[in-house]
Amino acid sequence: MFLTLIWEISLGLAALSLATMTILIALRLRSVSRLRGETERREALLAEMLEWTETGYASQASAIKKALLQDPRLATDLIIEVFEIVRGESQQRLASLAESAGIGDRLRRDLAKGPFRSRLAAAEGLAWFPSAATVDTLKKAVLDAHDDVSFTAATTLSTLGSDLIFDEVLIARLARVNSSRRIELVLAQFAQTRPEALLDLVVDAGRSDRLRTAGLDALTQTGIEGLLELILSLEQSRSTDMRVAVARNLGILGHPDGHGTIARYLSDDRWKVRCKAAEAVGRLGLIDLGPQLCDLLLDDNWWVRHRAGEAMAKLGDLGISALQEMVTLAGQTALGQTAEHVLAERRRSA
User: Fold this and answer.
1) Which residues are CB-contacts of 84 (< 8 A; sequence separation ≥ 6)?
2) Could you give the CA distance from residue 118 to residue 236 in angstroms, rounded to a whole number?
3) Is 312 exposed, middle or buried (CB count within 10 Å of its CB: 0-12, 13-18, 19+)?
4) Do residues 281 and 266 touch, judged by C-beta distance below 8 A?
5) List of residues 6+ apart from 320 with CB closer than 8 A
6) Which residues contact 66 (CB under 8 A, 6 or more apart)?
7) How many helices (H) and strands (E) does the chain have?
8) C-alpha span between 226 and 231 (Å, rounded)
9) H or E segment at 82?
10) Among 312, 263, 257, which residue's Cα sits nearest to residue 283?
11) Cα(220)–Cα(216) distance, rounded to whole angstroms?
12) Local confidence pLDDT in tens for the 350 residues of the chain
């Protein structure tokens, strides 16, 4: 009796396991089939959209609009993908079609009330739907509780040429962000489209050094008129980080009028400034500052010695010969070891 009961329970469990596996397999097959179907629809719609951007046929536009209305999520992803491929008139036609299919409205709703990921995607995607309604929604999103959504909305507004400026709210949020990379991305976008918006921020000594230096870096990438004067006006800053930024950006700009500042920075009392100035000498090939680099090879700070040695190596045959002579004459002193280390690195990278 007891053995019969055990046998029946075992059979029941085996049957249950078999049924469960059957259900899981069926669900898996259904999922694979659905994904395959979505992929096929996506590829077909993508091909039709790309063709339509070339032909502009009304019949194709009607079919595309119908497909977009049937699957808004897929439509949004595809629209943004195609936007990044096409340009000019084709892009404008596509934007008009997408707006008429309700994609712009959907993105604006997502940005206003959607979950975090939807808000973030909408803040980026609305760059392709310029309108008064889009600008209004983005301006509200700048106040979003999540920094990523707020900054993405701000950069999109900048892309659209909005009147949004660095108000106190946005500046305060940027100052709180832990990621320097995030700050750089936001300021770089403003520098490209609204460089004047950064100028007051950079020269305002009351702002955080992190914001000001990131703003200066972003402006240097634009090459705007008056950039050299702006950088040189900050030469005497009491902030070490700002002087480092001045040296860095003079090295990038490469203007001859920056020579004197770089030379003075080689003897700055802060080692970070001396480091960055040495890098600028090597980057710009300022051979006349070679003797000062030699002095820095005896600096108390290892990083300064190392950067000075790297800069020497970038001065061509003259710098290399000087380093080789130091190895021979200075031996195992700090000077000789620094020169030997720099030359060894150069050989490995050659």
Assistant:
1) none
2) 46
3) buried
4) yes
5) 312, 313, 343, 346
6) none
7) 20, 0
8) 9
9) helix 72-83
10) 312
11) 6
12) 656 766 666 666 666 666 677 676 656 656 555 556 566 666 777 777 777 767 767 777 777 777 777 776 777 777 777 777 767 777 777 777 778 778 888 889 999 998 998 898 888 888 888 888 988 999 888 888 888 888 888 888 877 877 655 666 777 777 777 667 777 877 887 787 778 778 888 988 888 888 899 999 999 988 888 899 999 999 999 999 999 999 999 999 999 999 999 999 999 999 999 999 999 999 999 999 999 999 999 899 999 999 999 999 898 888 888 888 888 877 788 788 888 888 888 878 76
**DSSP symbols for 285-331:** T-GGGHHHHHHHTT-SSHHHHHHHHHHHHTTTHHHHHHHHHHHHHHT
Give SS3 for 48.
Answer: helix
158 is written with which tokens? Answer: 């900048």
Q: Going by C-beta distance under 8 Å and a sequence separation of 6 or more, which residues neighbour residue 107?
A: 76, 122, 125, 126, 129
Distance separating alpha carbons of residues 103 and 128, to the nearest angstrom: 10
What is the rounded distance in angstroms from the CA atom of residue 154 to the CA atom of residue 301?
41
Residues in the chain, total: 350
Which residues are within 8 A (CB) of 265 and not within 5 positions of it... i.e. 6 or more apart?
243, 246, 247, 273, 274, 276, 277, 280
- The one-letter amino acid code at 279 reads E
CB 254 within 8 A of CB 284: yes
Q: Tokens 């700050």, residue?
A: 183
**Geometric angle at alpha carbon 266, from 310 and 349, rounded to 5°:** 10
On whether the CB atoms of residues 119 and 111 are closer than 8 A, the answer is: yes
Radius of gyration of the chain (CA): 31
